[in-house]
Amino acid sequence: MKNIAIAIILSFTAISYAQQKGPQVKVEQGILEGVVLPSGIQNYKGVPFAAPPVGSLRWKAPQPPQSWTGVRKATEFGNRPMQKPIFSDMNFRSAQVSEDCLYLNIWAPDKKENEKMPVLVYFYGGGFIAGDASEYRYDGESLAKKGIITITVNYRLGIFGFFSHPELTKESPNHASGNYGLLDQNAALLWVKKNISAFGGDPNRITIAGESAGSISVSAQMASPLSKNLIAGAIGQSGAMIAPTERVVPLAEHEKIGVAFAEKIKKGSLAELRAMPADKLQDEAWKEGVFNTEATIDGYFLKKSPVDVFAAGEQAKVPLLAGWTSAESSYMGFMEGQYPNPENYAARVKTVFGDKAEEIMKLYPGSTQVEVIASASALASDGFIVFGTWKWLDTHRRTSGQPVYAYVFSKARPTVPGEKAKDNMPPALPGANHSADIEYLLGNLATNKVYKWRPDDYRVSQTGEDYFANFIKTGDPNGKSLPKWPVSKPEGEMSIMDINVQPKAHKEQYRERYLFLDGYFGGKK
């Protein structure tokens, strides 16, 4: 009897242990064990896609990840990249900042035999100086429930991700330096391409997406000869690597910036720079006027500026869905603290645009306070991020031979109790501000506890997420029960889908403005 009792206990123990084990997947480096979420979605967190870029690997292109023996637990987010806590809307689930940060996270539906699911690889925003793949608003469970393997990716930021120096260029087998954060994204795409079949994904149906710096990254990956053949589609939410949004610096100029930084902090050699503790290096780079984070035309990741790549039709020839929010920036972004009356507005336009002020006043009129607030808001938004996104869409539709879908997201978040205009200024224009669309379009409203979401918010989120899901699956956002989203043809005006409570498509309204800005910014190169 005693032996039987022991056998029963051991049997129950084995069953209990088996029940505690998570799903396991064999990738190139070894076996990963994740967790099954209550929804049934499998989740693998903190998966290394490259070797830790520390020590002698600081400021080197990402190296292959190390293999492991046994089973590696993939149940916790990896470290977030080195950064300062500068954006209050970033809520991380990772434990700490570290140079050892090259990890990705996977949300996958239960794999069915012989099934090949579409894949989304998402890059976070944060101006290339902040952000992390663990943020709640980028969570991939909602899209995974729609049959899409969803992946969020870490990449190096700031001084760690965008530092050039002649010694770095010389030691590089590619004779390049400076684009390490973008190369990290490419390394993640290569890892996904090699390994996603093990999760039930289709390596030939990888869509890349991102918001702000993440959207800028999408345009850069499309322009890079290293990545353009790895992707089947692209989604951009507010941003492109096109001036004035994002300046791309020639390598020689970028190296001079790096040398100047080293001189400012009194480090005479690359060895000394690499020997600096990460937090000390971060502190030095963060001082005002010491270092500016920019991408570079390094001859390797970028052969020439992305705008020239797209103009020549040398980018990834894939469907593109991209757009911006209706209130990317407020009028204060242009007025710089001045009251928005016609006199102050006219003076600001003259200061900013000089001999082009008269043309600007025709395109962005300001004869009343109402007009000033609208026009100053448009100038701030266009100069910040709208024009660059428009130029990306407009050029791609003309040179790619692929479908292009443009949108403006205009659903304003619920107001937060106690919010007031500052310094007795008039209120900003209503609408969706920069980054407000993330939770909606990725199906993650419930993760943001700041706002009291209403039924209309969830309705817009469902519509926007369905558009995204359809595009990721087919290259076309349209589907049953959704308002028709027209494709933008190579000629004529673009069609814009207004994503709001009542989604509707219309022809672009401000093409004349953008054509003027195209000549204005192009002339300042």
CATH fold naming of the largest domain: Rossmann fold
- Determine the N-to-C terminus distance: 88 Å
Spans where pLDDT lies below 50 across 5 or more residues: 5-19
Give the strand order, joined by hyphens, for the main sheet: 3-4-6-8-7-9-10-13-14-15-16
Query: What share of the residues lie within helices?
Result: 25-40%
Mean pLDDT: 94
Which CATH architecture of the largest domain? 3-Layer(aba) Sandwich
- Give the class from helix and strand content and strand pairing: alpha/beta
Number of strands: 16
InterPro entries: AB_hydrolase_fold, AChE-related_enzymes, CarbesteraseB, Carboxylesterase_B_AS, Carboxylesterase_B_CS
EC number: 3.1.1.-
Domain Carboxylesterase type B: 23-512
Protein name: Carboxylic ester hydrolase
If you had to describe this structure to a student in words, what would you say it looks like?
The protein contains 17 helices and 16 strands. It is an alpha/beta fold. The strands form 3 sheets. Strands 3-4-6-8-7-9-10-13-14-15-16 form an 11-stranded mixed sheet, with helices on both faces. The protein has a 3-stranded mixed sheet with strand order 1-2-5, with no helix packed on it. Mean pLDDT is 94; it is low at 5-19. It has helices at 2-20, 141-144, 158-161, 166-171, 180-195, 213-223, 251-264, 270-275, 278-286, 306-311, 332-335, 342-353, 357-363, 369-399, 437-441, 455-474, 511-522; strands at 24-27, 30-33, 35-36, 42-48, 71-73, 103-108, 117-123, 149-153, 201-211, 233-237, 248-250, 295-297, 320-325, 404-409, 495-499, 504-507. The protein has 2 domains: 28-317, Rossmann fold, CATH 3.40.50; 328-412 and 430-525, Rossmann fold. The radius of gyration is 24 Å and the shape is globular. The relative contact order is 0.10.
